[in-house]
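ugh ok fine here u go
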Amino acid sequence: MLMAAPALRAVAIFEEMQRRHPDLSAGARRTLERRIRSWRAVHGADQEVIFRQIQEPGRMGLSDFTDMADLRVTVAGIQLDHRLYNFRLAYSGFEHARVILGGESYVALAEGLQNALWALGGAPLEHRSDSLSAAFRNLDHDTREDLTRRYDALCLHYGMQPARNNRGVAHENGAIESAHGHLRKAIEDALLMRGIRNFDNLPSYRRFIDEIVSRKNAHHSKRSEAERPALQRLPGQRTCDYEETLVTVTSSGGFTLRKVFYTVPSRLIGHRLRVRLHDDRLDLFVGATLLMTLTRGRAPTGGKHAHVVDYRHVIHALRRKPMALLNLVYRNQLFPRDAYRLTFDRLLEKLPERSACRLMVDLLVLAHERGCEAELATVLMADLSAAQLPDLATLRKHFAPDPAALPEVVVHLTPLIAYEALLGGNIAQVGGEAA
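structure:
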């Protein structure tokens, strides 16, 4: 059997022998495995040989991604579906890591790599990555070629020779694959010592990762300092680390991009916006003017659309049409906190639909106009716990600004005659009077 199919596993051969000889003892399996191993040492096929390389200072930098789902990290109580971009210098072991919310895209690679190079203060002669074969394997040929050209242009901007390991051959990226394992274990240990895997927000989790990487880099500080003089100088500025596209704001008060609907202020309806698409955000431009930055959303699998909604963008329109809230497509995403969503569910149970919608919209207006979103949410949760409905009049009084706390502002206007004197050339006299 081994001569006919050398790749057969020992357990498969043993099961076949038991089928042919039912009286064969199960204890003979280990003996069979040892004999097969010895047979392969004499008669087996040649195996692939890994050639260890001498690493030169400033020569090689490597990038790779790793899935972090098994760490079960949550942000604000919601499990974070993310990957970790990891850069490493082969000689000194200097590392840089960044939390990636999407897949292994060019944008994630470009942003992570440039962050690493600017943190390092220089660029190696060569950059190796398997991301182009791993991330873009499902794209058509023209798209793959375009992304490859962009990756080559990115490396050219920093004077690095682009290199890619062969698809599916992980050991060609061995200088970073091993570092992946050590970094994941360090993160797991830090989470265990922290005692909780939940973070208040994404920036706090990113700071947590940065601290771990910084501690690891401290162990290689001498080698890193010795390698820095061998690195190439950085160019004057970063290059493109985003994708750019154009969108039109519809009468729905937003636009759809990659199966995600984003709301924007209604004054932009009908305008054509330029969008810079980053891994975790969207920068919106009118011409060359930056308007705002939105959190990037991602559509779930199965063809469904997602929504990124800011209630402040549409609250003025809902105020005029409160019944639109009842069957709004993105109703659950409209509420800024769970307390508001749960309150609306309670209102629908206790009040007629029209009254429930009107009261809920008024609560959102209060949160927006008085700047008390978090404080109002606390009050609403207390009302829910007490099984009582919110009292809008009491809430308006509670969150109204205190007139006594408002500063008294007195503006002294300069007489126009002073400006006429300046124009007339009597500057010294006016300056003396002002003094």
